[in-house]
Amino acid sequence: MLTIASGIGALAHVGRALTDRRHASAHPADLADQPEIRPGPEPRRAGQAISFGSSSRVCDRLPAMTELGAVAWPVDPIKTERLVLRESEARDRAAFIELFASADVHTYLGGPQPRDELERSVPETPGRRPGLFVIELDGAMIGTAEVSRRDAERRGNVRPDAGEAELSYLFLPEVWGRGYATEACAAALDWFADAFPGVAVVLYTQTANVRSMRLATKLGFTEVKRFEKWDAEQWMGEWSPVTPPA
């Protein structure tokens, strides 16, 4: 994806686990330019699950992201030049399944989930939690972008108190290469900066994921460190708003 995916932190709270089959890499890339994000969190490993939101049923998932805390949610839909960022709805379920079942989307995220297991496990309305936006183009879901607090127990925090958040994202392959990931993630970051002034945002990806690295630069992420994990070089960046030229 790139794989336009970035640690699907963007979908992290639900059900019973499927076993993971590959090592994952953190954030995929700009699906749009490709290209969530989610996104976004550490790569999926055996015993971890992708979280779809509130549900009693479980799937193998990426590490759960910490709740944002006191924030008005859902927010009114955010409109950009071409897209709408909004809360998940029941009509998005099929697109969520496509995202998780796509081998292209999960090139750097540990591999796709079996479609039949997703059909059983994905709740009626997946991904309903603060900070997770469905990205809509011309009335249809094309991906997700999420900015969520990171779990304090996870390694690689920028702040000593692990107070930062993490960006993750996923986009369907058919919309890669058109700049949608950049447009959507920039809007999500602006929303987060307004809601939580001064809170750092980080992003992880593999250095081999060239499009994801390019997206990180476009969004204003600067390198914090590189490290080896899951048999690949990983990249961690921190976000600061891009200042328009005078």
Task: Name its key features.
246 residues, nine-stranded mixed sheet, 17% helix, globular
Folded structure, characterized:
The protein is α+β, with helices and mostly antiparallel strands. Helix content is 17%, strand content 22%. It contains 4 helices and 9 strands, in the order βββααβββαβαββ. It starts with a strand and ends in a 7-residue tail after the last strand. The model is unreliable at 8-66 (pLDDT under 50).
In a few lines, what is going on in this structure?
With 246 residues, the protein is α+β, with helices and mostly antiparallel strands. It is built from four helices and nine strands; from the N terminus they run βββααβββαβαββ.
Describe the secondary-structure layout.
Layout: E1 5-6, E2 78-79, E3 84-86, H1 93-101, H2 115-121, E4 132-137, E5 140-149, E6 165-171, H3 180-195, E7 201-206, H4 210-219, E8 221-229, E9 232-239
Parallel strand pairs: 6-7
Antiparallel strand pairs: 1-6, 2-3, 3-4, 4-5, 5-6, 7-9, 8-9
Percent helix, as a range, is: 10-25%
Sheet-strand content, in percent, reads: 15-25%
Largest sheet, if any?
Answer: 9 strands, mixed
Stretches where pLDDT falls below 50 for ≥5 residues?
A: 8-66
How confident overall, as mean pLDDT? Answer: 74
Secondary structure class reads alpha+beta
Tell me the series of helices and strands, N- to C-terminal: EEEHHEEEHEHEE
Q: What is the radius of gyration? A: 16 Å
Shape: globular
Tally of DSSP β-strands: 9
- Tell me the number of helical segments per DSSP (H or I, 4 or more residues long): 4
Distance N to C terminus: 34 Å
Q: Which oligomeric state applies?
A: single chain
